[in-house]
Specification:
homodimer, about 650 residues, alpha/beta, Urease, subunit C, domain 1, TIM Barrel, Hypothetical Protein Pfu-838710-001, eleven-stranded antiparallel β-sheet, nine-stranded mixed β-sheet, 28 strands, about 35% helix
């Protein structure tokens, strides 16, 4: 007789191994952190004894559920905003609140609450993507759960970094510190192709490969994303990230709602893991991922809850049930995703998708003891049939509730016994969460009166132009001199436009600091004929992000919407307390100067009559680039024969007010 | 101060009335069975005192959930068979098991278990459709729940009736006995248009109108149903039932997955209620009902779980969540079915769909005190935001679990307090359910070896030909005499066919009593050319249903599948222990005799050489009709000049074996 640490007996053991071995009555033997044996009682009780023998009373023992994609700190934002358009939800609620509130403290609290909820729901392992990810890792390790914790990198400032260079540097140090931890796998998460640049995606892949850690990313979540990618790159999302060598890393791709047969095969070739998020994809109306086909081709497809702000909970039993139902409903085939296969997705396939298949996801000798006990005696799970060996899987997927999980073990350590959490106290956490909720409520109630929410509430196509521009403006005496100066071998003119711009600025009383601009552009042909009229609404924020020498400014543009209603409509809708009209005639040149593209605007201010201005602008995505371009702007002003000393920091509306 | 029976205070009261009034902290005042007042504490605590004042500790009080379509006794079949094709599931498992096991005892037990589960899940009222419905009513009334209990009527024999006339007679008596009961509304349920005849549908509508009770029916659940209706009736399902005056009754139409704009408007005109069953419709791959549009047009759309054999539980919180998610996902609009509207579906709209809107479904003065308490303090439902008044509805729909329901009251009586059931004991019931499960397991394990399951398992298009035929057979000396006799003013020949039929009968050892026939028909043109070959598999049952005078038989045909594989394949697949070949040449006449259609077959038996036979057949749906036709068959035999005394009771295979 061999002695082990713990023997769990009198259970229905679902191993979820390659052969789907099940034992009833079955035994799981555990020594320290690992599984030593699984099998029938009749075999194993003769071979093993243990320091602790636990009678499971006929419950199911199975591998803990794997939540393959989530944003755990967002438990603190659960129920913040629902039933909204994706852009209104994201840009109007989630991002502003995150900018304001997300901190290491917020992240640790949200993570602990999520861990408490996930343990209660039978989850032992999850793949997270958020900010201050080292704090997510710390909180998770303290509670004792297993996780891939992925530090987010974005092309615009985040709650934890003013630039992506900062995020990358943070991620490198974090990965170095946590690499090799028994529970936490540190990881990098370029948020999505459309929120990163090529440079960011390449750098993240390089880092992930250097440290051999997973790379976690959102892929093809919406049809719009794919359409934009086709428009801009002439290919769908997966070939694009493949071209950037991203798939050479151990990738976990979340969502993948809109990927085609070829893209699925590419994933198969690169052993890319997929996280399917059925609740989130329905709730945000993103679509239905082709899961049945992915599984047929052999992808490791796990299931995730996504963040609790778009779900609104961390209940994998709901996701299991929905994944199976949705695959049946979407394919018209009620045999699609049978219960056993769905349960495999939520266990072993999820572990493999997270590149943790050797460690967890099934009850096999040598793997970590990550397991749960489920009570199938409640009325909602009775009776029990035996004529079909698959019926136990069907019970778990179609009738079990998360609240039927009674015990949870991770890495050989009990995190819950008889529905009592052992490593995390909910009471204090919920109190602290309630305090955050009050602060966020206050912030939002004030903000609800803001222009942005009203703009978004219009329901017109609104885009956040989260671009940054380096810009400088110089009053000009004689525009002809500027025009002549543009004929210069250093300045290559790529494109010219001429238009008259009629702006109406809506101003508002405090506390609103933004302006809303109704803009009408009349394009003018060489013959002086109006060829096109375009109307737009732009929300212009109150502040400059940064100011460089010579009053070169880094500005951040905000929201842009097509204006399909009349000026009168917007006036009545937004009820501005002041209105300013500006009319200008603009010659706009797209030029290349020292290998960098700039816009040069030569403006004639007609209303009010302010004279002529030279404006130079260039888009930028990083601080380093912005610094470089701000120097080039100064040089370009000199080349055109104007004085950088004459730059003014005000925009036109500021000039008028002044 | 007015004294009432019970005051519930310190609660978040969601009234679900027309204005969606909510009170926090709120009060509900109850006298006897009814709601006397709802409102804010500050108002009502000064006006009312009570024999019992209950502090709800900040829980939500809302109307009990309404399960608008289910088959409650099927709790006993939960998990019996999953992940199967609809026909395999229905014809291979549900119907055979129901035929074998459904009895008043089965129905009462299953109902009580369902009531226990539903009370735990916060359901106070349901619409049922099953057999022995009076026993469903009895069990429900004993437990104290509210229900519309609908007696099923079908065109074929059911567990509780050998004919639809019997079902109708049973329903009439049952409705008479229960009409006016405070909790139970008796009702009639013609199962579906495709499982009833025009005559049945008309009779059911008449009965429902006579007693002013609801009529409960499955409508347009699958695309196939609509396609068949268009083929056979040249119209979709709703116009068809409208034509039969069915919609003049108070109809509750379940599923309605495949109805169009016009049909929705018809329902609106007739105040037809709809029961949406999102889980069942996905699980059985029936499709996604156009709920958003139905609500826009103003239908009363409730939500149902459907039976626990296709769900697999009676959890309305799962249905709520899914209804909302699915509407968003299917319409591509994340603002579709916002939480408040979804909760209305599960309460007041469901009550109206069941034609009980005056009695229950909202917390309003004068309505029955049917309400539940929900604890929203658990970790999976925290934190709580207040900036948007709709967030409480979102908490209920998106984050609440059924297990958060703590207290349930129906008709002023507590059925559950602090999660303790007060009117039903689960232990004994579950034990009895387990005993049924063992019997059903045994039955199915034996049956698994049967021909039917193997036939269905083939996955070819299998149809159950649940038709009944009256038939008689006479050996004939001279076929020319028969042919001449057909030229008769009493016999109108509608259609003639000529074909050679090659049958191979597979026989099997006991206990299998059925034969499987592989049949190849070669159609012969007038020129004697083979114009068409068709192959089919038919499962032929062992027994005759009934025998009329002169050896006229009532036979029930069984399953029919197209045979796309070779005879060799079927031989190897089914492994028959004996094979019999029969070849015949058949002249087949469709005739009208005394206003009734008959088939007259004139068969030349070539292999083995048995001579000539005259066969007369006619389809029938009711016992009365069968009796009439059996008499006509005898007359027709005489008209043709043969002797009814010479009829033989064997079929050809019987003749050969004899």
């Amino acid at each position: 007789m061999e002695t082990v640490s713990i023997l769990l007996k009198n259970a229905i053991v679902l191993t979820m191994d390659e052969q789907f071995n099940r034992y009833e009555p079955g035994v799981v033997a555990i020594r320290d952190h690992s599984i030593v044996a699984t099998g029938n009682e009749s075999d194993l009780l003769n071979r093993y004894t243990a320091e602790e023998i636990i009678d499971c009373g006929g419950k199911i023992i199975m591998p803990g559920l794997i939540n393959a994609h989530t944003h755990v700190p967002m438990t603190l934002l659960r129920g913040l905003a629902d039933d909204l358009r994706l852009d209104v939800w994201l840009l109007g609620y989630m991002m502003p609140v995150e900018r304001e509130f997300v901190s290491p403290d917020f992240v640790r609290l949200g993570t602990k609450i999520a861990c408490a909820e996930m343990i209660r729901n039978g989850i032992t392992c999850f793949a997270d993507m958020y900010y201050f990810e080292e704090d997510v890792a710390k909180a998770t390790a303290e509670v004792g759960m297993r996780a891939v914790c992925s530090q987010t990198v974005l092309k615009f400032p985040t709650p934890d970094a003013t630039s992506y260079e900062e995020s990358l540097a943070y991620a490198r140090e974090y990965i170095q510190r946590w690499k090799g931890h028994p529970l936490i796998v540190p990881s990098i998460a370029p948020h999505a192709p459309y929120t990163c640049t090529d440079e960011i995606l390449r750098a993240c892949a390089k880092l992930a490969i250097e440290f051999d850690v997973p790379l976690h990313i959102h892929i093809a979540e919406t049809a719009q994303e794919v359409e934009n990618m086709r428009r801009d790159q002439n290919m769908p999302v997966v070939p694009y990230i493949k071209k950037l060598n991203l798939l050479d890393a151990k990738v976990l791709a979340a969502h993948c709602v809109h990927i085609d047969e070829g893209e699925i095969r590419t994933f198969e070739h690169y052993n890319t893991g997929v996280a399917h998020n059925p609740s989130s994809n329905l709730k945000l109306a993103s679509g239905i991922a082709p899961i049945k086909r992915m599984l047929e081709i052999g992808l490791n497809v796990g299931i995730g809850t996504d963040g609790p702000a778009s779900n609104n909970d961390l209940d994998m039993f709901e996701e299991l049930r929905l994944a199976s139902f949705l695959a049946k409903g979407a394919s018209g085939d009620p045999t699609a995703l049978p219960a056993r296969q769905t349960l495999a997705m939520a266990t072993i396939l999820g572990a493999r998708a997270m590149h943790l298949g050797d460690v967890t996801g099934s009850l096999e000798v040598g793997k970590s003891a990550d397991l749960i006990l489920i009570d199938i005696s409640p009325v909602h799970n009775s009776p029990r049939f035996h004529h079909d060996p698959n019926s136990t899987y069907a019970q778990v997927v179609y009738a079990t509730k998360a609240t039927d999980v009674t015990d949870v073990m991770v890495h050989g350590r009990w995190l819950m016994r008889n529905q009592q959490l052992l490593t995390v106290q909910e009471g204090e956490l919920l109190k602290a969460a309630g305090e955050y909720a009050i602060k966020i409520d206050t912030f939002l109630i004030k903000r609800e009166k803001s222009l942005l929410s009203k703009l978004l509430a219009l329901g017109e196509r609104t885009e956040e132009e989260e671009s940054f521009e380096v810009q400088a403006k110089v009053p000009v005496k004689d525009p002809q001199i500027v025009l002549s100066a543009l004929i210069n071998p250093e300045i290559q003119i790529i494109r010219t436009r001429h238009y008259r711009q009629y702006d109406v600025y809506f101003g508002f009383d405090a506390p609103e600091e933004s302006h809303l601009r109704y803009r009408e552009d009349h394009s003018v042909s060489k013959q002086g004929v109006i060829t096109n009229v375009r109307t737009r609404l732009t929300l212009i924020g109150p502040s400059r992000e940064h100011s460089y020498p010579k009053k070169v400014l880094l500005s951040r543009s905000r929201f842009l919407a097509s204006a399909n209603q009349s000026l009168r409509f917007y006036r009545e809708y937004f009820k501005p307390t002041q209105e300013i009209e500006i009319e200008k005639d603009r010659l706009r040149y797209l030029v290349k100067f020292k290998d960098t593209e700039f816009f040069i605007n030569l403006d004639t201010m007609n209303k009010p009559d302010l004279g002529y201005f030279l404006e130079i602008k260039s888009r930028t995505w990083s601080q380093k680039d912005a610094e470089l371009k701000s120097q080039l702007v100064v040089e370009l002003i000199k080349q055109i024969g104007e004085s950088p000393e004459a730059t003014i920091s005000q925009d036109y509306i500021g000039l008028i007010k002044a």
